[in-house]
Design goal:
alpha/beta; Rossmann fold; 7 strands; about 270 residues; 7-stranded parallel sheet; about 55% helix
Length: about 270
């Protein structure tokens, strides 16, 4: 009899985290839904098919709370087979607009949360000889675009972490994937850090995006199940990624046009 997979998803109370939790549960897995409060996690847990799911609370930016989460998971399940490091917050703005407090907050939640998740749950996978780590980054971590300094740098760190981790654990039976979507219609802007103009621009980009939460989640789940490493689940990004890799000079000129447009925009 095949053992039921144990899947932990952070940021599972809404958005992509919730959508992925639904898909893993539908596949027959047990899902631990983790968000800032049990109430948020419980909203998702109630929607999941099957039994044995958990609704848990943890601030992924806290060492202590993540260690407590690990203790709970070990007590309830003995470990996890799939770790989805998805929780994060949005930010925007140019370097001269940033503060050190913003840098620390974004790095703690968007990058070091992934470090915490991997450090705490990866050893169990390695001991069992298999598992999967799925890290939510962003196309901002690949794009090198202006106007999203703290967010882009943190997400680029998630991409680099995932690349290095993949090389470390692939031969030990653990798969690694990194998710790099661009804008799609979700509630990420509810937590955005930045000026009103920055938030307004992000909302405009989301509203005009051709992708929905369901289309993105379907693509992420399908690619992760195939063990694909770089997952670009929004429609325009595969071509943009190729453009940057194959024609870097042209791509940079496009970034300069974007920067000039942003300079002309009212702030």
């Amino acid at each position: 009899m095949t053992q039921q997979r144990r899947v932990l998803v952070t940021g599972a109370g809404s958005g992509l985290g919730q959508a992925l939790a639904l898909r893993y549960a539908a596949s027959g897995a047990r899902v631990a839904c983790v968000d800032l409060s049990v109430e948020r996690s419980e909203v998702t847990r109630k929607r999941l098919k099957g039994e044995g799911h958990l609704a848990l609370a943890a601030n992924v930016g806290s060492d202590d709370e993540m260690e407590q989460l690990q203790e709970t998971i070990l007590r309830e399940w003995g470990g996890v087979d799939v770790l989805v490091n998805n929780a994060g917050i949005a930010s925007g703005g140019q370097m001269v607009e940033t503060t050190m407090a913003e840098w620390r907050q974004i790095l703690e939640v968007n990058l070091l949360s992934v470090v915490r998740g991997c450090r705490l749950f990866l050893p169990g996978m390695l001991a069992n000889g298999g598992g999967q780590v799925i890290n939510t980054a962003s196309f901002a971590g690949l794009a090198a675009a202006p106007g999203a300094m703290t967010y882009g740098v943190a997400k680029a760190g998630v991409v680099a972490l995932s690349e290095q981790l993949r090389a470390e654990v692939e031969l030990r039976g653990v798969k690694v994937s990194v998710i790099c979507p661009s804008f799609f219609r979700t509630n990420l802007c509810d937590t955005v850090i930045g000026s009103p103009a920055t938030k307004a621009l992000a909302l405009k980009m989301m509203d005009s995006a051709p992708d929905t939460i369901d289309s993105v989640a379907d693509r992420v789940f399908a690619d992760a199940e195939k063990g694909r490493f770089l997952i670009l689940p929004t429609k325009r990004e595969p071509m943009r990624w190729r453009l940057k890799r194959w024609f870097p000079g042209l791509y940079f000129r496009m970034l300069l046009k974007l920067s000039a447009k942003m300079m002309r925009a009212p702030r």
